[in-house]
């Protein structure tokens, strides 16, 4: 069963806020190493960058649409519990049920969209269109901020 969001072409890629850069993260890493592990050397910026982008498959420009957090969580759980077949089977069953529910919801939206009854109105809210705010560029807040504003306008 295919993913109900659009990142299925690069399912393992992770995205960070586009205001971040490898250099900013590297500087935070160097600061952390100097503070927490002062007697250990830091890796070079180029090595850090290679590991960050190639090994962890992380990018800074988000895709045009987001993935489903339930799908992400269940796929991560499947990967993390790979050595426990019972848990993997449970996660896969939950993922399949979740995707079936999402497909059912999409089919209902299509049905209501094509409804010709003038007394019936359907409203769909696209939570992918949420606006992230605020954008902070100081220290540890770079990776900790995840506040969103959901703007909803309804006109009947």
TrEMBL record:
Coiled-coil regions listed in the entry: 88-115
Keywords from the UniProt entry: Coiled coil
Top-level taxon: Eukaryota
Keyword Coiled coil in record: yes
Protein name (database record): Uncharacterized protein
Record organism: Portunus trituberculatus
């Amino acid at each position: 069963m295919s993913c109900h969001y659009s990142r299925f072409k690069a399912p393992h890629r992770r995205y960070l806020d586009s205001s971040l850069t490898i250099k900013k993260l590297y500087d935070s890493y160097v600061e952390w190493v100097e503070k927490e592990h002062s007697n250990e050397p830091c890796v070079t910026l180029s090595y850090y960058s290679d590991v960050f982008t190639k090994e962890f498959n992380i990018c800074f420009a988000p895709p045009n649409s987001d993935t489903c957090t339930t799908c992400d969580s269940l796929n991560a759980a499947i990967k993390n519990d790979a050595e426990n077949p019972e848990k993997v089977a449970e996660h896969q069953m939950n993922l399949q049920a979740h995707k079936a529910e999402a497909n059912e919801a999409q089919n209902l939206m299509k049905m209501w969209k094509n409804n010709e009854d003038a007394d019936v109105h359907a409203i769909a809210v696209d939570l992918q269109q949420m606006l992230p705010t605020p954008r902070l560029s100081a220290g540890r807040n770079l990776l900790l901020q995840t506040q969103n504003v959901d703007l909803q306008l309804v006109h009947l």
